Amino acid sequence: MALVSKYRFLSGAVKLCFLFVALLSLAACSGRATPVEKSDEAFDDIRAEVSSVISETDRAAEIISLIDEMQQAFADAREIRQGHLSDFVDLNRNYNTTQAQFDELISATAADIEAGQELVIVINRKLVSKMTAEEWQDLNKLRGRAFDRLVKAMDEV
Amino acid sequence: MIIATVTALYLIFGGGNWWVSEIKSVEKIAKQVLPADERRDAVLDAFDEMKDLAKARGKVQKETADVLAEVIEDHGSDEAVLREILSGYRSDTVVFYQTLAAQRMALKEQLTEQEWAEIYEAVAAED
Predict the structure, then answer these.
(1) Angle of the A35-53 helix axis to the A133-141 helix axis, nearest 10
(2) Nearest to B94 among A106, A133, A150 (CB)
(3) Both A111 and A54 in a single domain?
(4) What is the count of structural domains for chain A?
(5) Is A81 in contact with B82 (Cβ distance < 8 A)?
(6) Same domain, yes or no, for A51 and A7?
(7) Is residue A47 domain-shared with residue A28, that is, in the same domain?
(8) N or C terminus: which one in chain A shows less Cβ crowding within 10 Å?
(9) Which A residues, 36 through 95, put their C-beta within 8 Å of a C-beta on chain B?
(10) CA-CA distance, A61 to A73, in Å (whole number)?
């Protein structure tokens, strides 16, 4: 009898454990970062790294302002890319889409890629000009998860 | 990390994972809709070609990222070199999209409008 009671108690404990795990899983799901949140976290990491490497406050602020520009460029590019991918999927799904419609979208995509790359070239040039070679290398050594986070954020359409 | 981020920004339009995901959804429905015959086999082969193309694109993106990172890492790197790499990458991207479109137009020839609608309406319903 005592043994049965013991197992009844264990059974209740196991149920409680399951409930606890289920609640934890739900909490984890509801707390999953969106692509935008992931990229924001990556840029926050970069700003923190800049502050740790560049000791002069004014110059650090200038560089962080460029990082802000990069973040905006990333957000804009992501939105543009999603628009293109969505348009490509829509064209593909329509049986009557013509080759000319695809060509038009591809040309627009190519133009947006070029414009986006030009913008990053300018920001990159400014970043390099505001840092010494040593600082640039120091920041590179702090290479963390930013790249993976950004690529994943970009792929989640 | 700045260098990795700049690299990611340059390659933002490059990947092909989204297309692999789209084709997998379409392929699943096509298998249910089309009768099991030689034409269905040809359609499924066409999907495989599309997925292979998109995966190859991912490889190009990774290789370009490695080359770009090396150039960007050099504080005194020549911007002309950077532009040359990016120009090549843009050209590859355009060829990728053109090939996708050509593959899609070829696929269309193998299906009737009714089959096409049936497949893609089911795909859209699953979105």
Answers:
(1) 130
(2) A106
(3) yes
(4) 2
(5) no
(6) no
(7) no
(8) N
(9) 42-43, 45-46, 49-50, 67, 70, 73-74, 77-78, 81, 84-85, 88-89, 92-93, 95
(10) 18
Question: With an 8 Å Cβ cutoff, is B97 touching chain A?
Answer: yes
Q: Is B25 on the interface with A (CB under 8 A)?
A: no
Question: Any CB–CB contact under 8 A between B17 and chain A?
Answer: yes
Do residue A16 and residue A60 come from a single domain? no
The pLDDT tens digits for A82-108 are 898 899 989 999 999 999 999 999 999
What contacts A135, CB < 8 A, 6 or more positions away? A53, A54
Q: Which amino acid is at B19?
A: W
Over residues A109-127, the mean pLDDT reads 89
> What is the distance between the terminal CA atoms of chain A, rounded to a whole angstrom?
59
Q: Which residues on B lie below 8 Å from A121 (Cβ)?
A: 79, 82-83, 86
| CA–CA distance, A66 with A76 (Å, rounded to integer) | 15
Assembly ipTM: 0.85
Task: Give the domain extent around A141.
Answer: 34-155
Residue B112 token pair? 């009737």
User: Per-residue pLDDT tens for A25-48?
Assistant: 433 444 567 777 777 888 888 888
